[in-house]
Amino acid sequence: MKKNVKRIWSLLLVFMMVLSLAACGGGKQKTDTTDKTSTDTEATTVDTTEDTTAEETTGWIPAKPIHIVNQSEAGSGTDLFVRTLQPWLQQELGVAIVCDSAPGSGGKIAATQLWNANPDGYALLAHSSPLTTVTEISKDCEYHIPDFEHIISFDVTPYAVGVKKGSDIESIDDLIAATRTQKVSNANSGLGGAQYLQSMIMKDALGIEYDEVPYNGSAPCGLAVMNGDTTITVVAIDTLLNNSAEIEVLAVLADERYEAAPDVPTIKELGYDFPCLTMRRGIVAPPGTPPEVVDRLIEAFAVAVETPEFQEYAANTKVMLDIKLGDEYQAINQEYYDTVMQYVDYLR
To answer: C-alpha distances in angstroms, 107 versus 80, 118, 203?
Structure first.
């Protein structure tokens, strides 16, 4: 009996030792697996971080404020476009966006300044075509608009004829009659500019004459009509619509009616057919700006114009957005140049 008990205890002791060894072996196996997994994870983390950093530093990263020089006065349509985009461009590019103005001489002052600026991405021109194109041709400027590096065009906006509300001139026919019996004057954004050219084309087509009074930009032209300083103004239609409480739009100088003013007839609907210029506002950089800088600026503006705030601003200000980027915008400006050259006699 005692032998059997001793044998049983011996077997139990051996069994317990086997279990203990198995447990120790399993623990060792588990520890090795954990260490290996930890090492692999650390290696993966380092590699991923290095790849991400490399991707983030690809392309141009601005290191100081970017100045956007506007060819018109503060408060003009082009200026307000840029100021609406300003916070989003700052967020996208990571630097301050400074809005400057260099109005006058039909955009020549600002365009010349940017033509001679360092092509490093820190100086841009906010301008409207074909204004600067017309000025280039009429004033023998040193710059050539198609040769700028083109970033983005925002809109397509026709010119229109506006008068002060309550005026005796309530139609284009009234305007024609008024020029026969009284002194009539037109507020334009600068002699030799695009609005001036459009006015000259219209006068010849209608067989009338009136005085041209130059101002620095479209906004002062609207004020001139509202104050009674001039009889009419031929400017971008959104300038007139944004002052619709005090200005009456007689006609849109375009082939089709303007979306934001569907009740205003086109000049062709009224029976008058002559060339009508169409304005585009946009951003260009000095010639020779590196491609990687141009590409980054195009990308940043393309993001900014899609923000709800900018879209809402465009809708509220009666602007018809038509976004064109890079080479597509450049081709449009080249076409403007070719068209304006056909009417160079009006400018010289």
So the answer is: 16, 19, 23
Report the alpha-carbon distance of residue 36 to residue 94 in Å, rounded. 41
Q: What is the pLDDT of residues 77-122, one digit of tens each?
A: 788 899 999 999 999 999 999 999 998 887 899 999 999 999 999 9
Does CATH number 3.40.190.10 belong to domain 158-253? yes
- In CATH terms, are 66-156+279-346 and 158-253 the same topology? yes
For domain 66-156+279-346, give the fold: D-Maltodextrin-Binding Protein; domain 2 (3.40.190)
Query: Average pLDDT of 236-247?
Result: 91
Tokens of 34: 């954990």
Instruction: Characterize the bridge pairing of strands 211-214 and 185-188.
Output: parallel
Domains in the chain: boundaries: 66-156+279-346, 158-253
For the entire predicted model, the pTM comes to 0.72
Distance of alpha carbon 89 from alpha carbon 33, whole angstroms? 50
Give the per-residue pLDDT at 58: 57
CA distances to 64, 67, 292 from 148, rounded to whole Å, are: 22, 16, 15
